[in-house]
Amino acid sequence: MRRAQTGASEAFGGLIARHQGRVFGLLGFLLRDAAEREDVAQEAFLAAWRGLGSFDPARGAFSTWLLAIVRHRAYNALRRPHRSSSAGPEPFADAPPAGAGEIARRLDAALLGLPVEQRLAFLLAEIHGLPLAAVAEIEDVPEGTVKSRLARARDHLRAALRPSLEPRP
Amino acid sequence: MSDDPLDSPAARAWRLARQEGIAPGDFAARVLAARARSSTSAPLPRRRARLRWLEVAALTAGGAWFVARVAGLFLVFSAS
After folding, report:
1. CATH fold of the domain at A98-169
2. CB-based contact A161 B35, cutoff 8 Å
3. pTM of whole model > 0.90?
4. Looking at CA atoms only, how far is residue B4 from chain A in angstroms?
5. So what's the pLDDT on residue B37?
6. Second-level CATH architecture of A1-86
7. Integer Cα distance of B50 and A79 in angstroms
8. Based on CB atoms within 10 Å of each CB, which residue in A20, A61, A154, B47 is the most buried?
């Protein structure tokens, strides 16, 4: 991290390699178009590189700081006219993992059906396992707002799973 | 054991599988190349500013020459 902060490109390359999976995992549920996801991921990493001097490890984890940049860039992309919408009937994340089955497909579809703020809260807290304080920092809202977004998102996903758990006649 | 469907083994497996997306194989190299390109183009505004100063200096010199020329002609005419 310190070497990357001094501008060492191979050190920053290491940071990219370590965090790109998480960044693409998040963007997979926020932006429909694959090329746009790559653009936003690249913009976010470049912005992080430019701002690396201002990153203070004492204030929080690098991943939280990076994901806040990713969120900001993704929201900008969603606001752009004539670009991909965040909502739609067909899933736009990567295909469900092989053998994941019906439950994974239902969860994917339910997550994609959520308003983007609830979706992001669920992704950060439940998928990436970030604490509420970090999610609040990334979303730039109070923790109480994150809690209510998460509760609504969980209810929605539970409801989507219910038919698959009921015994079939 | 929790009866929350979001805590079921299948839902947990889904959460785990969704943690990481798939980046293009050359993604890191592409970001580094984009950064290198933006670094080389950074001095451009400074070069443009230097050129602007040269233009101002040239115009000032030209203006001074013109004023001296007019003043010289005026002196010639007034002497004759």
Report:
1. Arc Repressor Mutant, subunit A (1.10.10)
2. no
3. no
4. 8
5. 82
6. Orthogonal Bundle (1.10)
7. 39
8. A20
B17: in domain: no
Instruction: Give chain A positions within 8 Å (CB) of B24.
Output: 38
| B52 domain residue, yes or no | yes
* C-alpha to C-alpha distance for A66 and A73, rounded to whole angstroms: 11
Phi, psi for A95 (deg, rounded to 5): -60, 150
Q: How far is CA A83 from CA A79, A91, A132, B29, in A?
A: 8, 16, 31, 26
Complex-level ipTM beyond the 0.85 threshold: no
Report mean pLDDT in 10-residue bins for chain A, 169 residues.
Answer: 63 89 92 89 93 84 92 91 50 54 89 94 95 94 97 95 62
| Residue B20 lies inside a defined structural domain of this protein | no
Q: How many domains does chain B have?
A: 1
Q: Do B21 and A27 touch (CB under 8 A)?
A: yes
Set of chain B residues whose Cβ sits within 8 Å of the Cβ of A107: 11, 14
Pick the residue with more confidence: B24 or A122?
A122
Residue B75's domain spans which residues?
A: 44-80
